[in-house]
Amino acid sequence: WLATPDVPTVLALVTVGVTLLVTARWLRRTPTPESDYTNRDFLDHSDLVDPKVRCDHLSFNAHLHNRFEGQRFVEVRGEEGCHVAFSYATCKEVMNDHSSFSSNPFPDNRLVALNTMTKADHSRVLRHIHSYYMQ
User: Fold this and answer.
1) Cα 8 from Cα 50, distance rounded (Å)
2) Cα radius of gyration rounded to whole Å, the chain
3) Which of 20, 19, 45 is nearest to 32 (CA)?
4) Rounded distance, CA 83 to CA 80, Å?
5) Domain spans in the chain, listed from the N-terminal domain onward
6) What distance in Å separates the CA atoms of residue 14 and residue 20, rounded to the nearest whole number?
7) How far apart are CA 132 and CA 72, in angstroms?
8) Which of 33, 35, 98, 106 lies most in the core, judged by the most C-beta atoms within 10 Å?
9) 109-135: per-residue pLDDT in tens?
10) What torsion do the CA atoms of 121, 49, 43, 34 make, to the nearest 10 degrees?
11) d(CA 44, CA 32)
12) What residue ranges are annotated as transmembrane (predicted)?
């Protein structure tokens, strides 16, 4: 009743096993918060991408400023290396500290589109988006 399995069956079983192990490890690394952001003392990446939070971003921002008052940066759980800065002065300091901070969000040093534009193209695009950064 116990026959020797063929190679495709063994490969399929190994693939399923490895997939289950990787998925279980990933789930342990990135736990989903059990409550919404108003009931926690930390900021989670899921808060930043939640459509409900994004629709009511003014309330979310007010909560963050109240909850993390006096803090310059707050680490975002679930997104390694991601932090939120709360004041204009802190943001300006980061923007001017090129040796410590980068505008490139990719850890593998891929370039962001604006970084690859010519100076003339960058200036033209900047005219259109500049007002959004000054709000």
Assistant:
1) 41
2) 22
3) 45
4) 9
5) 7-103+110-133
6) 10
7) 22
8) 33
9) 665 565 667 888 888 888 887 776 665
10) -170
11) 8
12) 6-27
